[in-house]
Specification:
The complex is a heterodimer. By secondary structure, chain A is α/β, with parallel strands linked by helices. Chain A has ten helices and eleven strands. In chain A, the strands form two sheets. In chain A, strands 3, 5, 6, 7, 8, 9, 10 and 11 form an eight-stranded mixed sheet that branches. The chains are: A alpha/beta, B alpha/beta. The complex binds zinc ion (ZN).
Chain lengths: ~280, ~325
Amino acid sequence: MMQMPDWLRARRGKDAEGRDAALWTKCPKCGEVLYRRDLAANAFVCPRCAHHFRMSAFDRISSIVDGDFAEIGADIAPGDPLGWSDKKSYPAKLRGDREKSGLSEAVVCGFGQIGGFDVALAVMDFHFRGGTMGTVVGERIALLLEEARKRKVPCIVFTASGGARMEEGMLALMQMAKTTAAVTRFTEDGNFFMTVLTDPTTGGVSASFAFQADVIVAESRAMIGFAGRRVIEQTIRQKLPDQFQTAEFLLEKGAIDMVVDRHALKDTLVRLLEYARGGVLRA
Amino acid sequence: MSGNLIVERERGLLELERRISELRAANATQPVDMSSEIAALEAKYQQILHEVFGTLSPWEKVHMARHPGRPTSLDYISALERFDELHGDRQFRDDPAIVGGFALMSGRAIVTIGQQRGRDTKENLRRNFGMPAPEGYRKVRRLAHVASRLNLPIVTFVDTKGADPGISSEEHAQSEAIAMCLHEFSTARVPIVATVIGEGGSGGALALAIADSVLMLEHSTYSVASPEGCAAILWSDASKAEEAASRLKLTAGDLHDFGIVDEIVPEPLGGAHRDVAAVVGRTLSAIEMSVTRLSALSPEELLEERYRKYRRLGTWHAERMEPIGGR
Ligand SMILES: [Zn+2]
């Protein structure tokens, strides 16, 4: 495992690191009790059954970029357009998730290098509001694509999302239109756009930029679909097979380009970036 | 489908209507003058109409949008001068939940597309209650692409609870089908006018609604998810749909305030189904005005305006946050 870069250490603080080291985690798939630090060293993949744990955006970025990462759009913070309140107010929910995840919103965007390639990178995080897309997610991703278009660098988005964020109502749905507009401008200029679908990728995120990429990669066993499993089961009144809506299922149905194990992910992305750059790769 | 609040409330009114027309018929043939009774009944009828439909809550509007008699896409499309339906996604099948094709609107050639629900149970089963499958969205994309190539304005009608949530739809990549519709509507080099005529639910509705001008009927609804879906997602309890409806801000007025809807088409007291011809006529003229106005713009201007419109939608504020990495 690579050394923790300075930006990550600064963002996480001592607490998170100390807590990480102390925690034991049980694998939800095989039941193995795992030492948290070993799990992190193994890219959050269960050494026994290869279950891919959901990664935080910070861990993901540090596992993918060569070294430095410069975030953009960090100052874009959510509003409360509907004045939403159920058991808690929307702002209170946001504050809670902020404390819990150390994130300011459900996506982290910025620029870095992968295998020596300059890339624009967006990483969604399921730990913040289930990775749902509200205004901030849409705004940050659109901003990233616009900036990447100016710099003429490829863009990679790691998706992890329960869909559109209910608490922002129709303005959340409109982020599908916003990100689509930005993706379209970016790709029509001849830039390379790639998505990596991680567990889970559903709803409004799945039905917009996730499936608008030149190349769509998915992580092993990730759940990917438009409608949630529960919704489908309620509609058809029967249980769905385990395999349904997994990355492997989508590959078989022709919906995605490849399924990649997390350990091979960075190398795969670098190879794809090489093809996209084009030219004579080997003399 | 029964259980419609508006249909329930109309029962008493229908009974009154029947009695008034019976009295009228009797009055014409019998020597006794009953005109004062008739007038009293009519006054009462109007009073009840106002009490019941004068102001509608969001939840009542959800039911109004789902009213079985509410005009559907084909009611609008068939009122156009001419319509030639085009079928199929060229890959797998023709989805009856989507209707579309060439049409003439006051002499102008257009491409029109809409979600089509059924008017009775049998038709609803055939049209899957207006919930399109990926094949339907691929048909939409194909027609929008043809329109863009031939320089024909696109006129869409939005009326769906949402995209079909079924096994086959997932197997045929519903996400991709919707995502590529969004892409097509973002890049179409022609004017696009979308009208929400009934229920507009989630991405399945938006797939036909990225437009230069978005119209919405007064009692239609348009939301990030159906109220039942929202309640199930947030509270795992679809029975809290009424509460979700009140929070989601899904009425035409709310969406106009957000800048998502450009124009609201008024409906008669009691809803569009009470005077279908008038509502269809009024809606088509409003659409035509938008098409005419947008047709004066160049493709570049249209695309730039469309980009800016969707780029600015949302609510956020700047907050001092330490970016990771720095610059
Ligand atoms: Zn395991």
